[in-house]
Structures are given as C-alpha cells and as structure tokens.
Amino acid sequence: MIRILFFGPIVERVLQREMQFEFKIGMRLKDVTETLQARYPEAFQIVCTTAVNQVQTRDMEYPLADYDEIAFMAKFSGG
Amino acid sequence: MHNAVRLQTEDFSVDAELAELRASSLRMGGIATFVGCARDFSEGREVSEICFDAYDRMAVTEMNQLRDEAVSKFNLLDARIVHRIGVVSAGEQIVLIVTGAEHRAPALQACSWLIDNLKQRVPIWKKEISVQGESWITSHP
Lengths: 79, 141
What we know:
The complex is a heterodimer. By secondary structure, chain A is of the alpha+beta class. Chain A is built from three helices and five strands, in the order βαβααβββ. Chain A is globular and about 35 Å long. The termini of chain A are far apart. By secondary structure, chain B is an alpha+beta fold. In chain B, helix 2 runs antiparallel to helix 3 (104-121). Classes of the chains: A alpha+beta, B alpha+beta.
C-alpha cells in the first residue's frame, strides 16, 4: 500500500488529507502522480514539491516500494 | 528542557529559549534573535488569524537539517528554531530563531540565513483569515 498525503492549499482542492494506493511491483512515482493529476487537475496546478518518505524528489522514475509515503505539496509559506 | 528544534501549537517564551541557548555554552559572545509575528493587515485586508498547516515529520527533519547546516556554516555554538502550527491570532508570535556564536557577526548572519531558508525549505503553509475570507499565502516576503 502506498500512502498519499496532502497539506494546506492542496487539501482544499482534493478535499482529503490522505489516501492510499494499492502497491504494484514496478510502480514508479510518475504512475501515482499521473493518476492523481488526472483525477485532481486543479490541485496539481499548485503542486510544486513532491516528497517520497519525507525526502524531496524530482525524479518521476523513482521506483516505489510497498508502504512508501508520498506527499504532494504547494509552495511553502512558513515563517 | 525543550528540544532545540520543534513545532508546537502553543506560544513560546523568547526568554526561556534564550536562557536555554545561553546555558549551552559560556563562550557565547553574540546572540541574535528573530521573532516572526502575525500581522493584522496583509495585501489590503485586515487579518484576524493565521492558520498554519505542516507536514510535521518532514518539517522537523528539515528544521534540524537547517540548524546543523547553520552551525557548520557560521561556526555557531548553538541555535534554536521554534515554529507554531495551528491557529495564531493577529499580534501573536509565529516563529523564533535564536543563534549564538563567539562573536556577533556570525550570529546575525546565521539568524538571517536560517529564516530565509526556513521559508523556502520547510513544509509549512499559512492561511490568512479575514472578514473578507480566507487566503492561502504562497509568497516569501
């Protein structure tokens, strides 16, 4: 199972903070990203950072493992 | 004794954080402090509250990484970073950065570097609440 997390302004466009994807062998980050982009196009208009297991990555070919955690995040605005 | 780096919903005491920083070394000759506060006016609107959301585990990891980098880059003796999450009312404190070094210049430089990098690298988001509505903020002024 892949755990998907959303925060802040993304939550308001997806209308949930968390969801799960069934893990399949050979799954890559782009598989999850493209599926969610198609499902939530407005949310992904403001996604600018992706993290796998709390580490930022731009590598859409990143190979996923079962129980990985992916976060799709808008531009940070803390401070 | 509080963790030197943390997220919390409750307000923080600048005096208490300074005391903990100072207790870490008697060699500290310069201490710099930055306190970010919630303004009651933003982009033409009166703001009553700011709501902060965070990817808490990643945020704390990144804040610890920033602290480690600052200690190394500026040869600090110690540094502390505290950021509030949840609802913060106008006028209240949001974030605290305190840096201590043997001399003032590296302490001041590190403090400025830390808040600039926190804004860019730590996964925290803020939404301003006003009578005109709510608005997520995406800029880094």
